[in-house]
Each structure stands twice: as C-alpha cells, then as structure tokens.
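anyone else get weird line breaks when pasting these?? whatever heres mine. first is seq + tokens for prot A
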Amino acid sequence: MRADISFLVWFLIVVVIVYFRLLRPVRLRASRLWTGPAILIVLTLLLALGSYEANVSIPVIAAAVIAGAVLGFPFGLLRGRHTRVRTTDNPRVLIVEPSFIPLAIWFAAFAARFAIRFFLPHAGPTALAASDALLAFAVGSVIGARYVIAQKFRELQAT
C-alpha cells in the first residue's frame, strides 16, 4: 500500500512539472534552460532508488536507467526539432511553444511502470529495472529536446 501512495505522489509531482514547464508557452532564459530536466533527473533517480529497496541491485538499476535515457534521447532530438522557439525583446530570453508529446511520453512511462509493478508483483529484478528504464526514457527525451532548443537558442542569439 505504501508503494501505491508513493507512486501516486511522484506521479502528481511529475504531472505538475510537465504541465507547468512543457504544456504552455514558457519564457526561458539560457541560464534556466536545464532546470526542469535537472529536477526530472533527480525525481527519476529517487524513484529508481526505490527499486533498490525491492531487492534489485544497483548495477541492474543503473544499467536500466542509462539504457532508458540513451534510447529516449533520439526521440527528444526529433521532438525538439519540431518545437517552435520565438525570440522576445530580451535577447537572452526565448519563448518555447508547448507540446502535448512530453505529457504523452510521461503518461505512457508511468502507466507502463505501474502496470509492471502492480500486475506483476513477483516479477524478477529485470522487470522491475525495466520499469525504471521507462522513466529514464522519458527523461532522455526531455534532455534531447532541450539540447535542440539550446541549439536554436544559440542560433537565434547569433542573428
């Protein structure tokens, strides 16, 4: 029961972050471009460490998280290429247009993670680590998108 409540709390935190940072136009400074992804990385690592309590070894969790992030990065690059970025009066501030895709990726990752953990409670350590890889996939996609947005930021500043 404690795990279900913990999952719900983390899910709500991520939904709030994704909603306020990714589903509405956001004014971003270059210095704050990586704040949202850094928060999501910390949250993902905290959730992954919860797997450690479920008798999944740290190397297995680490491998799953790294694999998920590496696989999610190219999707983020693709999404970032389709994200509109506008300039403002301040040359160090950009407006990043919203996208529904991040919310869909996060929802799918959390839903799949929940399904694995709820419907397969006696799944082995590999299945539990794979559920952490799903969250890392979502984080990797956000990092990839921010990387492309940072490139657009540099290009717009140069003009």
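and prot B, same format (seq, then tokens)
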Amino acid sequence: MNITQLRDTVSSLLGASPNLLGTYTLPNNTTVPAIYTVGRQGVPPEWKVTGLEATIREFPDVSPKPMVGTLRNRQTWTVVLVDYDAASSKLQTAAQRMARVFPDAVFSSSPESDIAYGQYRIRIPDVQLLNLYPPS
C-alpha cells in the first residue's frame, strides 16, 4: 500500500453515506473535506476545521526483518481522527468503519476533555515481502 491508496481508502470510507468527514475552510472561504496528508508540515494554521478531521502521516514507520532470501518489511501507517464537534458521535462511527476495513489495526483513543478534543490514533500494519538480492 502507498499513501495515495491509503488516503483514497480513508476518504471513501469516511465520506460514504452518511458522510462523516468535516470541512476545512480555507482563507478564501472555499471549503474542502477535512482529510490531510501530514508531511513536513501539518494542517496550515489559517485553515479552520469543523467536524471530523482525518490526518494521515505521509510516510509509514518501517520495521524490517531479514528472512532466508527475502525481507519481511512491516510498515505501520498512522491515521489520526479528531472530532471538533463536542456533541457528535461521528468519532465512534468513524473508528468502527476503520475497524471493519483494517481489522488488524491498533486503535488508541484519547477521550474528550475540557482542554482537548476526542481523538483516535490508528496504526495500520502493512506487511511486504521483498527479495534481499534482486536478480541480476
């Protein structure tokens, strides 16, 4: 899996009926779905978010393990769901949708408090088998 495939999957999963994704309002008052790929920078601070936001780390964590003639490369993608609507149950519904598509993912939640929004950090494993020595 690559970042484009993961983003497309998360976008279609959370954007399916009923749509759970919130919106970003850009400085020019344009709105776009609240899904963002986090690379060197996070979501621009001038973007206003409402509803449920999904951020995806651009690169996975890798944990290679050599085997006989092959390499088992375990990648772990990180998706963070944050619900900026305190009265909503979208966060739980979104986590349930993610669990159905990624049943081997590890979910850790941070409950909503008076100083933080509720969120789920989802770590999605992705195992690849690669040849150690490419054929000449």
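btw re prot B: The CA atoms of residues 18 and 90 lie 10 Å apart. The radius of gyration is 17 Å.
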